[in-house]
Amino acid sequence: MEESVTYQDIIQKGRQRGKQEGVLLVVMRLLTLRLGLIDPVLQQKIEELSITRLEELSEALLDFETVTDLAVWLDNC
């Protein structure tokens, strides 16, 4: 069973989802520390980002000074 394509696909998707949730958790924590509570609308946009975009956001947020900076970044995604 472990050798089946379907099994491997399920495992891969599970790992991908776990990685995305981990990156999202770290990004949200950093944003909250940097900018304070994040508006639910912006949070929803962040939660919809791919892992690649979340990783890019994790770097970009170092330059953010206001929530507006975050909103502009998200609008340009």
How many strands, what sense, and barrel or not for the largest sheet?
Answer: none
Rg, alpha carbons: 15 Å
Give helix and strand order, one letter per element, not per position: HHHH
Average pLDDT figure: 92
Look at the helices and sheets and give the structural class: mainly alpha
Uncertain stretches of 5 or more adjacent residues:
none
Helix count from the secondary structure assignment: 4
Q: How many discrete structural domains?
A: 1
**How many strand segments?**
0
Distance between the termini: 40 Å
Q: Helical percent range?
A: over 70%
Percentage of residues in DSSP E strands: under 5%
Q: Judging from the principal axes of the Cα atoms, what is the shape? A: elongated
Question: How is this structure best described in words?
Answer:
- By secondary structure, the protein is mostly helical.
- The chain contains 4 helices and no strands.
- It has helices at 5-35, 40-47, 51-60, 67-75.
- The mean pLDDT is 92.
